[in-house]
Amino acid sequence: MINNKSKYTQLIKTEAQRLGFLSCGISKAGFLEEEAPRLENWLNKQMHGEMSYMENNFDKRLNPTLLVDDAKSVISLLLNYYPSEIQNSDSYNISKYAYGQDYHFVIKEKLKELLHFIQTEIGEVSGRAFVDSAPVLDKAWAAKSGLGWIGKNSNLLTKQVGSFYFIAELIVDLDLEYDYATTDHCGSCTACIDACPTEAIVAPYVVDGSKCISYFTIELKENLPIEMKGKFDDWAFGCDVCQDVCPWNKFSKPHNEPLFNPNPEILLFTNKDWEEITDETFKKVFKNSAVKRTKLEGLKRNINFLKE
């Protein structure tokens, strides 16, 4: 006879697939023992730069039972964002994840649907949805749930899929069947370390966030450091270099989420268009995009830094 745990787990995974998620893995909620010293060390070395929010909620980051009362399971989900077309070659670059609508909203809706499905099909289940804006170590949970391994560029990598996907979680007070972590398949490859324009991957599996182009172009609110001049490889918002060179991303296939399709103008923009972008164009082209995080002022600062 099929036990309830097994039945519920299968129900959830099937529904996750129907909602368009690439994959779904489940782990037992509890303290992330291995990650604790790693996170502490990373913060002590100031590798988070000006991202002071990373210091907050240290305990909650490592223990989902502090986020959801009586949490039993962490359901990790991946959603593909790899585009079918990329930007014009004569153009400043924005990270592929920002081509379409802001993923926070797109994924939150899907997670709400999944939680509603669980509550309708299974009964009284409490839970919370998380999309990288809360103190949850997404990559650690996804790896623990067997969805991939954490690569030398500190991104989650998956065989036959690559790494161009978002990670999200539902933390629920429901016992389920748990998946096992997979093995590391980076081998002796150092493509990401060798290619990083700012040498932010300071050792295999260690990224100094305060040296990353994504940090400079999105998180840093002050002036960009002069010593980084000429090292941004034309990235005006985010950076995909360590993913673009990763051999596992040869297997990336285009997503099928219409909300992630880019505004066609983004693909046609030339450097000149970026340099002359007006408030009106910015609002129209990036209406619901993650690029709005930098505001027009921040984007112009980044572009000026690239062209000076």
TrEMBL record:
It is found in: Cytoplasm. Its EC number is 1.17.99.6. [4Fe-4S] cluster 1 binds at C186, C189, C192, C246. GO terms for molecular function: 4 iron, 4 sulfur cluster binding; cobalamin binding; epoxyqueuosine reductase activity; metal ion binding. GO terms for cellular component: cytoplasm. Binds 2 [4Fe-4S] clusters per monomer. It holds the Pfam family Fer4_16. Signal peptide: none annotated. Keywords: 4Fe-4S, Cobalamin, Cobalt, Cytoplasm, Iron, Iron-sulfur, Metal-binding, Oxidoreductase, Queuosine biosynthesis, tRNA processing. Cob(II)alamin binds at R61, D132, N153, L156, I167, S214, C239, D240. GO terms for biological process: tRNA queuosine(34) biosynthetic process. It catalyses: epoxyqueuosine(34) in tRNA + AH2 = queuosine(34) in tRNA + A + H2O. Monomer. PANTHER family: EPOXYQUEUOSINE REDUCTASE. Belongs to the QueG family. This is Epoxyqueuosine reductase. The lineage of its organism: Bacteria, Pseudomonadati, Bacteroidota, Flavobacteriia, Flavobacteriales. The gene is queG.
